[in-house]
Amino acid sequence: MEQKETVTLTDNSTGKQIELPILRPTNGTPTIDVRGLYRELGYFTYDPGFLSTASCRSSITYLDGNKGILQYGGYPIEQLAEHSTFLEVCYLLLSGDLPNERELKQFETIITRHTMLHEALKRFYSGFRRDAHPMAIMVGVVGALSAFYHDEIDIHNPEDRMIAAHQLIAKMPTIAAWSYRYANGLPFTYPDNSLSYPDNFLNMMFSMPTEPYKADPFFVKALDLIMILHADHEQNASTSTVRLTGSSEANPFAAISAGIASLWGPAHGGANESVIRMLVDIVESDKDVQYYIDRAKDKNDRFRLMGFGHRIYKNYDPRARIIRKTCHELLEHLGQDNEYQELFDTAMELERIALEDDYFVSRNLYPNVDFYSGIILLAMGIPLTMFTVIFALSRTVGWISHWNEMIQDPESRIGRPRQLYDGALPRDYVPLNKR
Ligand code: ACO
Question: Among 54, 224, 240, 431, which is 20 to 30 Å from 350 by CA?
């Protein structure tokens, strides 16, 4: 019989021992199964922020931050970025493998046919103030989808789950573009089924009833790439939020809405916006780039170079390596006399100095994916407040794939972390007039 691999944990105060099984992944870090710990020794584990806790099994995305590796379904992100399209990547994340020609065509047709929103949802927008952040609108409207499609979805039926996934992937660009149109007092543009997924989004963002609009093919390609690179990143904060919300068997639209709320935070999806704000500050100040580099290195100054460094990647973020090339090509494509040239020159100067500076090199602080995606989105004419919305639109497929995986997993339970209680001991209620 095969010997089970274990680690032994000894409670030094009682001498009791427990054998904890080691779970071997197909790739990556071995994991200790601590489920028996509380039952057998009466202890919880303490791991704020889940720095060393695997919350689930997953076969969707593999990531090694030390080696700078990212794979969807085993396929290297570099190959997907070069050869694939966002919709093909959606199919891969949802089903676990690349589609054949017929499957891809069928998938594209399904997504295209679900891009419309229920007309009543249109009225939902007018309930928001004109100056509402588009992410606030996204949280509200995506959550509201559950009111429109709730009864049709049995989450224990795989076909129903796939329908919900298709609806979300298809409708998200429409919801996102309309949040921008509403804030700017522009009429909503309906989806155009003759356009590709990224082209359709740009058309809904920028077309006017008064004149024809044709998106720059370079922008369409760059947006498709940004969407591929942001499609999934395993158990990050927003994905874990979707899983936790969905673990109570909540409606998938409500779970995705929770994911959008989590993504909104500046420590997660908001970094690409911060990059541009930093570049604007630098351009508008009378100081040179070196002054900001020196500030970033000064431990007494809270200033950090936004878009540099990453919690997981201690090597070059593979997504940044890919997108950097596109960013440089796009700036070349736009030529020298565009309105953002000064910002772009500043970004390139920051990148050049930081990549040669020992402070950044020795700490493995490379520009991350958000440094370049912010610049590309700005060059495309996308306003700052829409940056995180585009991240949400791209990540929706990752969220819904994880939700689907969780519902199918026989080991999954309602998420219910424990705590290390640090509060008052039991005491008697004191009447108001005696406090
Ligand atoms: N500018 C200057 N110094 C930095 C930066 C930076 N952007 N990032 C890290 N450092 C320094 C730290 O001061 C620390 O120096 P020390 O070793 O001398 O104390 C060292 O590098 C290690 O940094 P940590 O903060 O320990 O790294 P951590 O992994 O905790 O932080 C983080 C990662 C939060 C992303 C950080 O690099 C940062 O704040 N970057 C700027 C914000 C940003 O771009 N966020 C987007 C990340 S990408 C994404 O979320 C999709």
Answer: 224
